[in-house]
Structures are given as C-alpha cells and as structure tokens.
Design brief:
Strand content: under 5%
Number of domains: 1
Mean pLDDT: 72
Order of helices and strands: HH
Largest sheet: none
Number of strands: 0
Low-confidence stretches: none
Distance between the termini: 15 Å
Structural class: mainly alpha
Length: 63
Amino acid sequence: MSSNTGRFWLGAVLMAAGAMTIFGLNELSGIIVTVLGVATVLLLTTGTLLVGTSGSTENGEPA
C-alpha cells in the first residue's frame, strides 16, 4: 500500500465521518470535516495526476 492509497482512504474516512456528523447534533463540525475530506481527496487526485505525468505508472507507484 502506497502513501497515496493511505491518504485516499483517510480522505474517504473523513468524508464518511463528516456525512454522519451532518445528520447528528453538531452540523457545523460535520460540514467542516466533510470539506476537509473532499479537499484531501482533490489534492491527492491532483497530485497523483501530476506525478503520473512525470513518469510513474497509472497506480501512482514509481515506474
């Protein structure tokens, strides 16, 4: 498992936690956590695409 995969799952967990929290009592923190999770995944995706154009394989692993 690469660090990219770990970051992707971290973002996914943050989004899931945020989605659950939105339906809970503290809506503001749920929205914040969801935004952080989405931002993490977007940054990771952008970074993976940039790395992918610089000579690594499709999976983001070094060539």
